[in-house]
Amino acid sequence: MCTSRCTSRCTSGAKGSRRWQKIPQRDDEDSPHAFTVSYVQRARRAAWRLRDVTFLCADAALCGRWVRTLTEQLSALAQRPRRLLVYINPLSGKRHGERIYRHKVAPLFSRANISTSVIVTQHANHARDHLRTEAELQNYDGVVCVGGDGMFSEVMHGLVLRTQRDQGRDHHHPDQDLAQTGLRIGIIPAGSTDCICFATVGANDPVTSSLHIIVGDCQPMDVCSVHHGDAFLRYSVSLLGYGFYGDVLSDSERRRWMGPARYDVSGVKKFLSHRYYEGTVSYLPASDVLGTPRDRAPCRTGCVVCQYNRPLEEEKEGKLKMEESHEGLAWRSVRGKFLAINAVSMSCACPRSPQGLSPAAHLADGTTDLILVRNSSRLAFLRHLLRHTSKDDQFDLGFVEVHRVRRFRFTPRFCQSDSELDLQELLQEKEQKEKEVAGSQARRILGQLCREHPACCRTPPCASCWNCDGEILPHADIQVRYTTLLLLFLPLLLLLAPLLLLLLAHST
Length: 508
Ligand SMILES: Nc1ncnc2c1ncn2[C@@H]1O[C@H](COP(=O)(O)OP(=O)(O)OP(=O)(O)O)[C@@H](O)[C@H]1O
Ligand SMILES: CCCCCCCCCCCCC/C=C/[C@@H](O)[C@H](CO)NC(C)=O
Ligand SMILES: [Ca+2]
Hints:
Elements (H helix, E strand, L loop, with lengths): L7 E5 L5 E5 L10 E10 L5 E10 L2 H16 L7 E6 L8 H15 L3 E6 L5 H9 L7 E6 L1 H18 L17 E6 L5 H7 L4 H9 L4 E10 L2 E6 L2 E5 H9 L8 H13 L3 E9 L18 H6 L3 H13 L1 H4 L1 E13 L23 E7 L3 H9 L13 E13 L6 H18 L2 H13 L14 E3 L2 E2 L5 E11 L12 E7 L1
The structure holds adenosine-5'-triphosphate (ATP), the ligand CCCCCCCCCCCCC/C=C/[C@@H](O)[C@H](CO)NC(C)=O and calcium ion.
Protein name: Ceramide kinase
Pfam families: CERK_C, DAGK_cat, PH_CERK
Organism: Gadus morhua
């Protein structure tokens, strides 16, 4: 903080960094003293901007009293972070992560008197492993990741796994409830999809995200745990995608050098290949919850549906046990051929798909929207995909179904122990095909059926892979469970009116 007569205005951030600006000089001897207050104002489409307003005072004493009082009030806001651990992925998106942080984020943190420890990652999983083992978390009020969805996933895994270890929980046990993480995570978008940032903040803007972090908001968030038998695989907060999105991701990994465009190239390639995958999906519907995936009202942070549906900590055990106690009754199964199986714990809105894969999915309601896209024609599937880029209802198609669930399992066909059942069904299908279709077309279809069955084909049966928040899972046979809540630096309630959130006061 610094004061000066009115020939010029000085505002200083932390530790004396100074910014001088001229303000009109007054003629009279008793030039006013002035102080500047920086605040947050809502701009277009959920964007936040930093604004300044300068107050003039008759004398230095009054000016000083104002600045001291404002500073004391701001310092008393316990939810605002003062020390942050920042991880930057230099290879995210278009590789602008470091520049974005240095030019857009660091100056705002400095003006808000936030001290930072910055780590530019040197390899994949650097952030996850550092958080999980070395980071002295007691020295920080929060963790910030600069990158895309994969980078957020790294930081989330590091924090959640560290918390489980510190609290003696076994994350490999599929039914183990997880301990909540104490630290909040802030996301500075610098990736290719950035759907986690976009779906939570409503914008992919580093300044907006920085201001959310500075004012210290807090937003809980659903996390799904994914297991293969008794082995923990990964957590997911956005998309668990099998089939189309799994194939797109695995194909795009070979094109990382293309940056964000890699998804477009792989998306068209996989759309044209039009592969379907057989298997059985079993799911536990979320009973007695408010809202459905077909609602038109999107989830906004602080939404009442989330608060109603999310069991309180003390209720959770009982509520889930009640639903699972009717295991035989409540669980449902769907066996078939799928172009895509997508489980989304949030809307997954992103610049490519502004409404998201499931527009009415909730951020923190303890459920996941399970979207089953059965085999259909290319034209029908294209219609479904294109509806993700408009406001048309992507579920209003005969081959698409969506369920709000708390748990689900998937078993690819030919992975079941009893392949005889499959073989018998396959032979029946062959006979049916032979009756329905004559000539070369029958041979083509039979070739497809044979290529994929272990009894007929030399290569292992085809299966897709799971896209888990942008990472590939090593197994296709998985069990998924809503688990616990993560905390993000996000507003508890997005007020309709422009927000005037006081950020900091400078004497000038
Ligand atoms: N220094 C690094 N070198 C190589 N890979 C890294 C490094 N730091 C992080 N990674 C890995 O890079 C992968 C991609 O990062 P990130 O998700 O941030 O970018 P993106 O894939 O472009 O964005 P999105 O996931 O939103 O599409 C992540 O899986 C992460 O583990
Ligand atoms: C042939 C026309 C196709 C148009 C289809 C547009 C639909 C885009 C939907 C994007 C969904 C994004 C879901 C988010 C997934 C992320 O976890 C992951 C990593 O960031 N990104 C991707 C692309 O898998
Ligand atoms: Ca959810």
